[in-house]
Amino acid sequence: MFGVFGKRNDRVTALGRMVAALAFFSISISTSFAAEPIKITAARVWPAADYTRITLESKQPIGFKHFTIENPERVVLDLENIELSNTLSQLSAKIGADDPYIKVVRVGRFKPGVVRLVFDLKTEVKPAAFIVKPIGDYGHRLVLDIYPAKPVDPLLALLETSNAMDAAAGMSAPTKADKAAPAPSIKPEEKLAKVEEEKAVNPRKAKGKDPLDLVRIVTIALDAGHGGEDPGAKGARGTFEKDVTLSIAKRVKAKLDEEPNMRGFLVRDGDYFIPLGHRVVKARKVSADLFVSIHADAFINPEARGSSVFALSENGATSAAARWLAKRENEADLIGGVNLDVKDKYLKQTLLDLSQTATINDSMRLGKAVLGELGGLNKLHKAAVEQAGFAVLKAPDIPSILVETAFITNPEEEARLTDDDYQDKMAAAIVSGIKRYFAKSPPLAKPKLAKN
Is 232 within 8 Å of 295 (Cβ atoms)? Predict the structure, then answer.
């Protein structure tokens, strides 16, 4: 009897040892896999006056810590369990000499399991780092945004542009007495008011026909869709929407600046990403009279073609296509990368769900005027202005439209969109539409030039 139980106990003990060994082996395997260094598959740098963005991409989530050091100014980014690859080692080569904030990046192994990136800076900054989950063609992304400690003032930037234009036109050449007198301290909005008053009295001569008789200078915010991490739609020939929209926006600005008492303001003037809500904020900070967001349409069917104009809707989309397009455009923040942990009080105030009936009515009039001009250049995809819940059109006090110039997914229209002459004609059509709008809806005097 005892012998039987003894053998059974031996078998149980042996089985227990085997299970324990297998468990230990599986734990060892999983631990070794967990300890496998993560590889950075791509590193991108997007410099801009607003901020410089560094993006590190991987197939797995990236653990990190970041902090700043003073005297001299530096930002330190520690990457946990990361392979020190050529992608990281060569990051410094992607920092241009004209980067407004970063001098150089130094990359090395700080300690076992940690790769350290040290960003030597040109000025005091305010960094922000966050993770973006996989979406579209992107894997896991670690984003480091380096903002200036004192944010760039769009109004000052616009004022500097206006002064440069005046100097080139010889409008405000200072006298010797002016040069000798010390300049008093004047706020940016007061400077801009003085510039606008002088231009209203002595406007630039228009190169086009039928110049508008505007009582004051008007500012049109030109929003080149997408940018930076967010390329927008892509044509069969490899054309990115973000490049086309920026090129056309710059042409529109150049033409507006030639008109008396009209001025264009580029919300995005380079290849970098701006969250949708912040595009609205920038337009309001320069007291824009109109907001024109420029895009290139896309569809799964390459036969789709034509130009369209959209405005905001308070009561749902006017069509399924408009609803689909608004959803696609509103996903730009997910693709471009937005720090969801940041709570922007000004942005929240700007995008309050206000009654926008009057603004939307003006937007519809503007859209109709622009659509009429586009119809003389290209086939219209829709004969009327459509409406949907576009996030970028939600300024409560600025008539706003979104222009889909053509279908970048249509091979013929993609070729046109990359043609300089066609881009120029498209810009001219948009400007003509804006002038038609102001001819019927002249701007009123504004009590304030900037909204703080």
Answer: yes
